Amino acid sequence: MACDKCFEKPVIKVTGSENSFCKACFFKYFEKKVKKTITKYNLIEKNDHIIVAVSGGKDSTVLLNLLVKVLKGRDDVKITALAIDEGIKGYRDKSLEHIKKICEDLKVELKLFSYEKEFGKSLDEILKTYKGIPCSVCGVFRRYLLNKKSKEIGGNKLATGHNMDDEAQTILMNNFRNNIKVSARMGPITGIISDKRFIKRIKPLYFLTEKEITSYAYLKGLMDKFNECPHDSDSYRAQVRDMLNDFEAKYEGTKNGIITAFLEILPLLKKHYKEEEFDEIQNCKICEEPCSGEICKACTFVEKVIKN
Amino acid sequence: MACDKCFEKPVIKVTGSENSFCKACFFKYFEKKVKKTITKYNLIEKNDHIIVAVSGGKDSTVLLNLLVKVLKGRDDVKITALAIDEGIKGYRDKSLEHIKKICEDLKVELKLFSYEKEFGKSLDEILKTYKGIPCSVCGVFRRYLLNKKSKEIGGNKLATGHNMDDEAQTILMNNFRNNIKVSARMGPITGIISDKRFIKRIKPLYFLTEKEITSYAYLKGLMDKFNECPHDSDSYRAQVRDMLNDFEAKYEGTKNGIITAFLEILPLLKKHYKEEEFDEIQNCKICEEPCSGEICKACTFVEKVIKN
Q: CATH class for domain B31-306?
């Protein structure tokens, strides 16, 4: 058995017809896919300032490495890394070291924002009194800071490490829970184009599976310091993920089928839900960030959970 | 614990907020849901001649019973039962007795068509030489006869026993396999409205789960003679079914979420795929029935599998 592209020994099988690759041909396949996604969906344009959300995990590490590589020599496009320090001892402190080292190696400026400074308390402190699901408060704060800080830094796009598995899971979760309207805001590039209060989000790893990204990170030697958030408890997503992995193992191409079918109807969804979406967006009366009610979710949490 | 509607002892739990029902209140709930589906989606109109596809299974047995009940006194609407005899010894011969008895009891005329007479051979005979999956040839023949014979009998609508489980499974299967275009032809009422070559299909049990229909059939004493086709081998559907049952057990309302989300986007799909669909439909050069190529799938099978 040889690599489908050359005569070397294959190290990985990916989905598709030509699917056994040696290390070098896998890197080519992987990087070509990222470039194709960027070109097809116009993810990067002249004079962009791209903020890359980095968590220290495999997806965002691979993303930052590849964006730097792809944009080498493009003096008109600027990259800044953005990390959020939730304040989780034993996890974030370790991954922050990793993030700092990566950014140093790649010569990318890193902007760091913490819950403690922005909201008054670290997540560890919040959880001493808050007894809800950690991810519910943390998710609100993280999304809030990613949008607000990306704009403050002067970015016009936020690149995230979302991959095919993440997207296929979210599509199904939205179907199972009758949240189809939320799906209208998904895809390789998202954001209400004519509303500058929301930064556009781009997902260059959209067409790559988790397995492919993990393999790429491992084969490129980017894997050694990854660890997982101790509060990772989204059991619903975990069950959808396990189910999808089962189907993919039995019926190769299932994840790809889901996102391809979704991308076919996405323009219809975007068109249909656009007006409705515009109507709902106001500005928070406390922080002036965009929100669907009078007070945004982040300020509501600060008032209820942190100040009390 | 009492029934959520009265003070009797409950016999079943259904999804939703008021969900524990005694026998009488469950019958009311069930029949009200069917009536509401018929009204909301305009499944039955003045002067309709409705052909009911009966297999002898629980779904079509419940369907025929309910349609007769709902349409009692409506002299303008005619019902005819249509059964297909594939020629499967030990299965269809038994269920045909059941079908004949039901139709006799309900005073509904039964029209019976067999593969042997229509195509020259019974399924049992076909399978002596045909080595493909039985369901692939049988499904083509059955769908072909249902459409053609319904029109010949003079019907303008074909009622089938498809339930919420069937529909949720098909929606997901189409998503997983990137067949979203096929989904545009689904819903409680289907058929290309301005193309008389296709009979409109109606699904009055659309919003009822398999569990509810089985319970209704059992509690109404309609259950005793059901058996299953020995060739039932759609393992892909079976796996999607098992997975959905698992999710429903853990996250009540999953199936309902899937069809509700789907019905929200269905008008967009129908509008989008309509023109494309019209372009593709020709008439078979052998039998003149509508098809997507020059020769329809049924005639292709007759030429390849039966005549050779």
A: alpha beta
Q: Quick one: fold of A26-273?
A: Rossmann fold (3.40.50)
Rounded Cα–Cα distance for residues B144 and A39 (Å): 45
Closest by CA position to B156, among listed B182, B207, B193: B193
Domain boundaries, chain B: 31-306
Helix (H, G, I), strand (E, B) or coil at B298: helix
One-letter amino acid of A105? D
What pLDDT does B212 receive? 94
Residues in chain B, pLDDT under 50: none
pLDDT level of residue A226 (50, 70, 90 thresholds)? low
User: Hey, which residues does A78 pair with through a beta bridge?
Assistant: A49
pLDDT > 80? residue A130: yes
Which residues in chain B have their CB less than 8 angstroms from residue A247's CB?
176, 239, 243
3-class DSSP string for A37-64: HHHHCCCCCCCCEEEEECCCCHHHHHHH
Angstroms from B255 CA to nearest CA on chain A: 7
Contacts of A236 in chain B (CB under 8 A): 251
User: Distance (Å, rounded) from C-alpha B40 to C-alpha B34?
Assistant: 10
Whole-angstrom distance, CA of residue B254 vs CA of residue B308: 47
The pLDDT of residue B224: 63
Contacts 24+ apart (CB under 8 A), B299-307: B301/B119, B301/B137, B301/B140, B301/B141, B302/B119, B302/B120, B305/B126, B305/B129, B305/B130, B305/B137, B306/B119, B306/B120, B306/B121, B306/B126, B307/B120
Q: Does the pLDDT at position A36 exceed 60?
A: yes
CA atoms of A4 and B87, how far apart (whole Å): 48
CA–CA distance, B302 with B126 (Å, rounded to integer): 10
The complex's ipTM?
0.86
Q: What is the pTM of this model?
A: 0.90
pLDDT in tens, A102-125: 999 999 999 999 999 999 999 999
Output DSSP code: residue A9.
Answer: P
Residues whose CB falls within 8 Å of the CB of residue A1, separated by 6 or more in sequence, listed in order? A9, A10, A20
Of A180, A243, A260, the CB nearest to B261: A180
